[in-house]
Here is the input.
Amino acid sequence: MATMNRNVNLEEINSDAFLGIPFLNYQSPFQKLIFWGSVVAGVLWNILATFVFHINSNIVVIVTIFPLMLGVLFGCNFNQDLTLFQYIILILFKPSKVYVNKPSEDLKQIKATKERMKKEAELRMREELKASPEEQKRLLIKLVLGVAIAVVLFIILLIVIASTRTDVIHHIITE
Here is the structure.
């Protein structure tokens, strides 16, 4: 029974890809025109040279490959940033400028991880400060002073309420 892998990376799904050929990913409209135009030109040249002009088949094959090569060099991409022609130039001439290709999703994940690690480090520093004996003494003194002030304020509040209150008789006994 056939099974299907449901863990599909959305980056790998590209509506422009043709038969799963990765070099046809990330094509601009101009590159699509170059690539498909060269394919059409090569096929037309092959048909016309063979059936109309009756040229030798060896020459037809060699000349048919030329527009296809141009279409692949300038119409296909090695990756999101480089065409195959630019990639071949990088290989042949070894430029001094280094090209690093990182998908933007990875950069976002790296930045998010960096922020998370920074927050964790700050939290760890705070925990270490709270764990030190000096900080524990300060916290204990603050707690005792806070409770003492709250108790004193509560007693003062009760005294003020009790002193302003007049005796109220709720029930009168009548005979």
User: Anything to note?
Assistant: Residues 104-164 form one domain. The mean pLDDT is 80.
